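Handout, page 2. Input:
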Amino acid sequence: MTPRTDTPRAKSLKASRRPGFTLIELILVMTILTTVIGVAAPSLARFFRGRTLDSEAKRLLALTRHGQNRAVSEGVPIELWLDATQRTFGLETATSYDHLDAQALDFTLDTDIQIEVINIDPESATYTANSPNRSRTANSRSSGNLLNRASQPPVLSKHPSLPTIRFLPDGSIDDSSPQLLHLTDRDSASLWLALARNRVSYEIRTQNR
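Output:
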């Protein structure tokens, strides 16, 4: 008589005969995974920090375009101010046109990102740099002096002591606006937000050229 194979005992015997992992095999697998993760972790960390740098640069670029569009559509100067020391930046109308901007925007840089604002003096081909770690001035002229040149329109700023990109109602960018924004992360990787050659917009560059 052939024994039945559908009884609970028979099923239990079949299950016990199925191949499985031994404790040693599991330990070996865990060791390999730990080694792989340990090797890959630094590269992954640098990758995500690089994405953060790229994201901050794109956010600033988007803000310049938004400010330019607002200036044209609303017919008033719009300012993108940058505070390298406080690691903040924002967008709002100039004081002379609107004391309370309901559409004002404020942002804070990622903790791993530093920003440096650079102004180029077209007359002497020199520049001043505004950053939390250093302050370089050419021909004894400060960044504040460059931002308040005589050619600047008589429009009051809500942030007179800070570098400011000003978008005018005709869609142009004020001549006193910074030409370069240098973004760096803690691994010294960098991106540049630079005034385009046609001087009507900004663009992201991987190097200052």
